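Practice problem 4.
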């Protein structure tokens, strides 16, 4: 009986044959469609160097999703921050004692003439400093402000309300302090507890995130018919597309920002809870408008507040 071929192979030949067998096995595994392929997952760490916004390291984990925020998004957020700060600085309160004095409000007329008017002026200035808003049709700007401003005045409260002391004060200003309980004398206990509970819930949902709130102000203003209390008489927009696209852009930035800050699960939870509270904002806006209609002489208010509260046919200047 002859010798088997592999017995007479040299060590070099054996090694070469073994390598070829291994190579064939790898090729077979690569081409086998029944074997699942593992997806490669990239993770990016978040540091303060990646954005102009300060973020807490408590939100950073090794399992973070891919950061979706682009340089464009961070630039827009920086524009929003700057626009808001400049709007506050541009409109300073006059004729009342400065901070830390407390200025009591005893009537609906005072409520509209002082804190509501001041908030409205600042928010309009804020909007006018947003580049996209200035590209809107002039009549569309008037329509959006006239019919949605009261709602964002209520959302603005989230930025200035201290739930522990029950006071309202714009940060870094000489504004006097306004007492939350003054709402009881003006609008009754039910409205006071309603607005206080709503604002506290919004503060909890939005986690005192001032960037998030400033973005939300824009999104609500750009939502045609948000207040819905006079939808039958609210005119159509002349250029719906540009408003729609701008609205969607800021919604996307808000969503990506929340993903970046809080992760997917918390973002979903935040948006779900926020929707219910926005219905409360709609209801509170309608309630205040109706109350003012019944208790305030329109001629005692500025043209701006007459327009925002639908008290006359006066128009805002474009």
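Answer key:
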């Amino acid at each position: 009986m002859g010798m088997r071929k592999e017995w007479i192979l040299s060590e070099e030949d054996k090694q070469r044959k073994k390598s070829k067998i291994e190579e064939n096995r790898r090729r077979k595994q690569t081409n086998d469609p029944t074997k699942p392929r593992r997806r490669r997952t990239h993770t990016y760490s978040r540091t303060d160097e990646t954005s102009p916004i300060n973020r807490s390291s408590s939100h950073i984990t090794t399992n973070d999703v891919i950061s979706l925020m682009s340089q464009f998004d961070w630039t827009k957020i920086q524009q929003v921050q700057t626009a808001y700060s400049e709007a506050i600085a541009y409109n300073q309160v006059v004729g009342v004692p400065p901070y830390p004095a407390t200025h009591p409000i005893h009537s609906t007329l005072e409520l509209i003439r002082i804190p509501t008017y001041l908030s409205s002026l600042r928010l309009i200035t804020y909007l006018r400093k947003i580049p996209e808003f200035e590209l809107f049709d002039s009549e569309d700007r008037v329509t959006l402000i006239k019919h949605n401003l009261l709602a964002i005045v209520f959302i603005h409260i989230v930025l200035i309300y201290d739930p522990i002391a029950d006071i309202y004060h714009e940060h870094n200003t000489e504004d006097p302090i306004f007492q939350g309980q003054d709402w009881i004398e003006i609008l009754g206990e039910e409205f006071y507890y309603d607005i206080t509970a709503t604002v506290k819930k919004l503060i909890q949902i939005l986690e005192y995130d001032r960037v998030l709130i400033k973005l939300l102000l824009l999104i609500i203003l750009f939502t045609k018919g948000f207040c819905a209390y006079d939808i039958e008489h609210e005119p159509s927009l002349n250029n719906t597309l540009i408003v729609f696209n701008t609205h969607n852009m800021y919604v996307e930035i808000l969503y990506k920002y929340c993903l970046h800050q809080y992760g997917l699960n918390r973002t979903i939870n935040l948006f779900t809870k926020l929707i219910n509270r926005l219905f409360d904002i709609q209801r509170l806006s309608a309630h205040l408008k109706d109350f003012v209609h019944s208790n305030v002489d329109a001629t005692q208010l500025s043209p701006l507040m007459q327009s925002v509260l639908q008290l006359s046919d006066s128009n805002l200047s474009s």
